[in-house]
Structure formats: structure tokens, C-alpha cells
Amino acid sequence: MVSLRQVSSAFDGRVPLGLDGLAAVVRGVVLLVPGCLAGMALIPIGALAQTAATQSATTEAATGQAVTGQAVTTGQTPVATSAAATSVQPGGQSIAQPSAPAPSSDAALNDLIPDAAVKDPELWALDTDAAKQAPDPSTLPSVSSLDGAGLDGTGATTATTPPTEVQKSEAVKGAQAPETFPGITIPWPDTTDLPPVQQLAPDPDISDAESVAREASEALDIALPRGGWRGPFGADAVIEHVGTGVELAFPRDAVIPEADDLTDRFAALSSLRALDKSSDNLAQISRRAREDSAVLLQVLHLYGYYDAEISQSMPGLDDGVASAAANDPTKSAAGKVVVRFEIVPGMRYQIGELDIGNINHVPDAQQILAAFALKTGDPANTESIQAARDRLIDKLGTIGYAFAKVDDAALSVDHETHLADLTIPTATGGKYVFGQVTSSMPRFINARHLQRIARFRPGRTFDHRLIDDFRQAVLATGFVGSVKITPREVVAPTATSPGVADIDVKLAKGPQHTIAGQIGQSSGEGFRLEASWEDRNFFPPEGMLRFRAVLGTREQLAGVTFRRSNFLARDQALNVDLYAQTQDTDAYNAHIVSAAASIAKQTTLIFQKAWSYSLGVEVLATSELAAGSAAGTARTTYFIGALPGKVSFDRSDNLLDPTKGFRIALAVSPEISVQDGPKSTYVKSQFDASVYQHVTSGVVLAARTRIGTIRGTVIDNIAPSRRFYAGGGASIRGFGYQSVGPKDSTGTPVGALSLSEFSLEARIKTGIFGGGFSIVPFVDAGMAGSTSTPTMKGAKIGAGIGVRYKTPFGPIRLDVGTPLNPSPGDNRIGVYVALGQAF
Hints:
Layout: H1 4-9, H2 19-37, H3 45-53, E1 86-89, E2 93-96, H4 107-112, H5 115-119, H6 121-126, H7 129-132, H8 165-174, H9 204-223, E3 237-243, E4 246-251, H10 259-269, H11 271-274, H12 282-302, E5 309-313, H13 319-327, E6 339-344, E7 350-355, H14 365-372, H15 382-398, E8 405-406, E9 410-414, E10 419-423, E11 426-427, E12 432-439, H16 447-453, H17 464-475, E13 480-491, E14 499-509, E15 513-522, E16 526-535, E17 543-552, E18 555-564, E19 572-584, E20 588-601, E21 611-626, E22 636-642, E23 645-650, E24 661-674, E25 679-696, E26 699-711, E27 754-765, E28 773-785, E29 796-805, E30 812-819, E31 830-835
Helix pairs in contact: 2-3, 9-12, 10-12, 14-15
């Protein structure tokens, strides 16, 4: 639309116009008004003013017809023109050619325009009183803006070249609002402050609705593809069910050796399977199906199927579910649709060229390649390639190549030949033997002690497995927080001899002190609380000092223990133990002072070993009185020397909570006992065995037996505290502590020369507390005999049920048992609380 500014700029120079010029201006304005009212294209005012200045008789397009046109170059700012043809006039000026007038689309507007104005606008404009009188120059608006824009000083037209865009812009910028413009009261646009345009914030409800609708549309596109589903195969397919509502379909004639592994791997990664919920709508299922399609393609690539194609559909989706999804995208579709991935695996790629560095040039090439076990023509299975790379690293590390470098494997796939070239950059670096072990903290653990812990000696061929074992053994000390073991070259290898690599051990201290406690309660034994404090490196290296105490209904103890771990050899400990103890049981009352020392092959929670043993010496003095003795009966003092020994074989999977395997242990202790003159010798032996077997994933059956015997003397020459007893939480549950076995006339246990015990229990996991809570029904049977030969004659049987709660430091045990064949005076219920399994 023509602006008032454009109109005013045509008169800004205040150049006096003649009568004809003024008439032309009036004519232009008259034509402008009906043209605007009719909503039609407008006439360029600049062109009209130029025509008036030259007093030409050029006829302008004077219709009110709504047309589109192009800009006419006149030296003024371009404005819209009509669709009438234009021609270039001499002087380089384009003017509009006349076009036939068209009737107005509005009859009321046509009535406002005089017929004379339509027939001959120029004549009509000149036929007025105002046009026939000379105007007063002071009342005319300024037209100075016409200077240099197509008019010279005489009002004649000048031939000019079309203005540039910069000139046009400057002309617009230079136009100023007139001081007065008769008859126009509208505020000038340049002086009117318009409010800034505020961007409307997006409506979140609309955005959410659009998102849901878009997802529903995408879901329907997948569920019901346009044109109908056309899979690569239909009913003739091998279907593998991955999970609820998820299937893989393979062509029946396709040979995929890894189909089962492929299906299992995809099932472990599938979003549809992992995130399956009853509230899932069709859009959610569709989105996860797209994600799973990409995952499935990656899995196929993993097995060497680089040309695999996957088609995804929801077969069997009925119109009801589809319509419901279209009408309500949030409506649940779970259980109503099945997502099927139809797979065309294509040809399985094979390994083409194989490049593993300089392996072929080392003396051990043959055994290295045999361990690598991958060759040209093998399937391009990424998992197999990674396994081969791991074997390569392991083999190099075990035969002396301490500084070998093996980079990541890279495959170059050729889709034309269906071959994948494999490159594993490898640099062997030469062979080495072990040198000396060094310590970063010699006052904490010196190099000599570290060398004792290591299973290698200087001069042995480097083997990274021994480094790994060394690292684990250092951590098993219990007071090393972290350790970094690094081989360091001290002698370079030559063509005839290996290099030498010292082993640098960088240590960081861990917690050295431990405060521990244990609490228990059982029928017969009563309450028992044990506490201890220890410093595991009080006498470096690995010299542990421990103080312990026991406070209980039947027992009180105070003791101190010294232990030197890795004493003289790896995993061997020197133990020295001093303690004073009081025991008050149903069989005897004893005050004991003991000193014992032993050398033992130790096993720990961190480094559980198959074989362990101990051999020691024990000296003790005990003052004892049989329970139920008459008042004033003198106590008997025993001085005992013993050489206890024990050997164990452990094939269980956990020290505190075994679930499979077995354990066997044999303890033998030759002893000499001196009591107020008489001296006797005897041998006390005990055999223990236990077995653990998984029945199902949540049920473990456990069984144990214990056989004991004392041979060499009669029972009266043996201190009551050194005899065998049966009954209690670690023996026959349901019966009281020491209540099973020979008794005197008053019913007081007197101890036995033999022992036979058997136990069977089922450890059943539940879903309570994340599977940490178990139920344990059990049955125990046993007997303590008065002869040295173990017997089950008169055996007592107890049964019950227990619970276990699994903790990081072992299960907490609560057992409740009852005797099935009680003796007079036996309690009907026995309760036992302790840490760890019963066996």
C-alpha cells in the first residue's frame, strides 16, 4: 500500500507547480482514494508527480482492480504496480502502460466516483474552480525531495539511470515529516511510539497434546504400516520368544549357528523386555521397539552379520487397539500387541587379512599364534575376536614379554567381498625375567618381606599371573589400602639373553586397627558377649597385636594374642596366645591359665585357600571341680601339655556362608596330664566333614558329621574341660549345652571319651529383604559315649526351624529347636542366636 510518507516525499522540495501540475496531483489523490477503498493495487505517486512536472499527457493505469505487479523504476522508492505491461521509454525510464478500467466490485463505491472522472480523469481534474485559479505558493507543500530525483530546476524531466539500493535507502531515510500537511490529522508514523511486539509463550498443554498425538501417529505407522505389512516372510518362519510380547523371527532356511546366543544377548539388552509394564501405551511400546531394532542390528553386527536387515511390525494388532490408540494415545496397550522383529541375516562375514604386528618375527611365534587361535576365514565375530585378543595378551604376559603392547582390535569391512580385515597392533618388546622387589614404604613393609610374599624369585621368567597373585596377597594382609605393582626394566634384552625387570611396589596404608564384637544367646550356654581390639601392623612387618575379652553367663575370659603373618614363608603365620579363663557349665567349674604357640597356614575371607594346617604347643594349668560336688570338695588341679595339630581341605565357595562344595578337617592333639602326682598320656582326635549342594537357585542343602575319640587313658585322668560333650547350638540343637552324654546319679553330665554327631538342613531363600532373608529347617542327631569308640547307641535327635539374615560380614542366625526324644529334665525348646551358619 502507498504510504502517506511516499506521497509527501513527492512534494518535499516546495517547488511551485503550475496549474496543470496541481491538477495532476489532485487527480492522483482522487484516483488513490477509491483504489485504496476497493482494496486494489495502487498507482505510484512519484510517477504521477514526475508526469505533472513535465506536463505530459501520459495516461496512467486508473483502475481500482486488485492486481499484483512489479516495481517501476522512476528514481523514487519502488511501490506496488498493477499487472499492466511496462515498457522502457527513452531515457531509461519505465512507465506503466494503460490498461482497461475494470468495474468496482462494490456498487456503493462505484456510485461515489463521478462518471466523468472514470471516463477522462485528466479532463475531470482540470475542470474545477480551484484548478483554474493560480495557487498561492505559500500554501503549497514542499517538494524539495524531488531535487535530483528526476526533475531539474526548470521542472523538466531528466534522463537518469535507475537508482541503486543504497540510494533508495538514503532517500527514504532523508524524508522528513512535513511541518504542515493540510487536511491530514493522522499522527506521522516516524513520531508515533508503537508498543513492542511481545512473543506469545508456547502453551504447554498444546505442546504436550501435539507430542502425544505425534507419538500415537508414529506408533500407528509402525503397528499398521501404510499399504499393509509386507514382511520378508510370513508364517514360514522360526519364532524365538524373547519375552512377553516380544518375538524374533528368522527365515526357516537361514543358517545362524549363534541364534540361541544372539537371542539371549538381545533379551538381556531389550528395552521392551526390561521396561515392560501393564500401563504401557502404544506410543511407548513403539518407541521402545525402535530402540530395540537398533540394538538388534548391533547384536547382529557383533556376530558378523553386517548385511542384516530387520523388519519391525506388530502382527495381529486389531482395529480396536489401533482405534483406541488414535482416540486416546495414553490408553494402555500392554498385553494386546506383540512386537515382532523379522530378521534377514544375510551372509556372515569372514576374516580377511590378519595383521597382529611383529608376532611372526619373535622366537615364540608358534605358541603365541596357537594361543591366539584365530585365522583368515574364521567368522568375523566380534566376541571371538575380543577373546582372541585377550588370549594374545595373556600368552605374551605369561612367557616373559613384560612390556608387550596390544592395542584394540580394528575391523575393516568390505561389503562387496563380505570380508573383514582384522588389525590388532602388537609390539612384543622382548623377553624378561624377574629382578628384585622394591618397596615404596620400607618402614611399613620392607622389600624382604614383600619378596617373601611373592611366589616368584629373581631369575624366573616374567609371568603376569604371578604379579596378579602378588597383588592379591599384599591386599590380603588387611592393612594395605591399595597397591600398584609395576615392572621396571633394569637390563635390556639382547638376541641371546632376556632382559631383567625389577618389580616396584607402591603401597598406600589402609586401616590398621579393628574393633570387633560378637553377641550370642543359646539355651544352656546363656548369654555371651565377645569384644576385641587389634593393630594388624603393631610390630612391622605384619606383626598383629590383639586384646580380647569374653563376658557371659557361663564364661569369662581375658587374653592377648600376637601373630606374625607371612612368617618365614608365604601365607604362614606365627601365633602366640596368652589367656585366663573361667568356665562354669552344667558339667564342671574351671579356672584356666593357658599359653599357646603355633605355626599355621592361614586362610582369610579375602584369600580363601584350599589347604590349611597348624602345628603348635600348648601349656595350661586348670583348677576344676565337677558340677554337683558336695560342699567342701577340693578342686583338682591339672597341668597339661599338648602338641595340637590340624589339617583342613576346603573346597567351599565361602568361609561364612557356603552354598556349594565341601570341607574336611582332622585335628589330633597328643597330651600329657599331671594331677597332684599321677601322670597320664592320651591322644584326642576329631574329624569334621561338611558338604553343600545347590538344589535350586534358592535352595541349598547342607550336611555335616563330627566324629571324636580320646584314647590312651581312663576318663578320670582327663580334666573335665578336655572331655567330649554334646548338645547345644553348635552340636545337637533342641538340647541344652553339654546335656547329651553320660551323666552321674544326680543327672550331672560327666563328659565322654567319644563323640558322634550328624546334621542336615535346607537353606531356603525368600524374596523378603531383597532375598537376604532365608528359612532353614533342620534336624540334628548325636551321642557322646563313655567308651573310646564312637557310637550312635542312645542317640538324641532334635529338630526345628531357623532364620538367616544375610549381612556383609556373614549371616545372622536364629534357630529354634526341640528334642524329639528328650530325657527327663530336658527343656522342650532351645533358642540359639549367633553369627554365621551352624556349619
